[in-house]
Amino acid sequence: MTTSASKLTGNDTRERILATGEQLILGKGFSALGLSEILSASGVPKGSFYHYFASKEAFGVALIERYFQEYHQHLRTMFDDQHHTPANRLLQYFEFWLSTTRQSQCHKLCLAVKLAAEVSDLSQSMRQALAQGMQTVIDLIAAVLEEAMQQGELAAGQDVQHLATTLYSQWVGASLLTKVYLQTAPLEAAWIQTRQLLQAESGLQATAYKV
């Protein structure tokens, strides 16, 4: 089966542009990336780009929405796993965050964190897409914290939305510092603090999650 641009369906072409653009942006950023580089790497003509995206900014919004759609689905699958307690599901999520950063040797941030640091002051529409996507992540974390509280893993009466915002903000900030220092120490500190918080409340064994 041919994979030439002329034989791709509309959805295939759009997805190819987005997937190629994401990988390029993870490497060099959004502002420094030109449309010609995206089109050359994806193997589609310039007219195809403007058929799907009115501008580079519109492309950026679509890229963020695509990223969060996949990321939210991954989180829902992880957080709905009833084989683990709610607190353990959260620890697994943050442990995955840390291990993924280690594997990339700190050279690549997740798309959301990378773009948040770069385009929030440059594009209102991209900032809004980031805000909406990140808020959904916080809401999903809050839902697991609520479940943990209902099951007695967290002390009753806590503001789970505030706690979720605090945890996510800590990890986003630590990810940026990790990129600056090119070492995972900031994320490891966030991991220790997160673990201590959840274990203190839930009674989990600290030895279960050594770094």
Descriptive overview:
- The protein has 211 residues and is mainly alpha-helical.
- The chain is 72% helix and 0% strand.
- It contains nine helices and no strands.
- Helix 5 (86-103) runs antiparallel to helix 9 (185-202) and helix 8 packs antiparallel against helix 9 (185-202).
- It is elongated, with a radius of gyration of 19 Å.
- The termini are far apart.
- The model is unreliable at 1-8 and 203-211 (pLDDT under 50).
Describe the secondary structure blueprint for this structure.
Layout: H1 10-28, H2 35-42, H3 46-52, H4 56-79, H5 86-103, H6 111-119, H7 124-150, H8 160-181, H9 185-202
Helix pairs in contact: 1-2, 1-4, 4-7, 5-7, 5-9, 6-7, 7-8, 8-9
Described by the principal axes of the CA atoms, the overall outline is: elongated
Return the string of H and E elements.
HHHHHHHHH
| Unreliable residue stretches | 1-8, 203-211
- Helical fraction equals over 70%
Total strands: the figure is 0
Average of the residue pLDDT scores: 87
Largest sheet: none
Question: Structural class, from helix and strand content?
Answer: mainly alpha
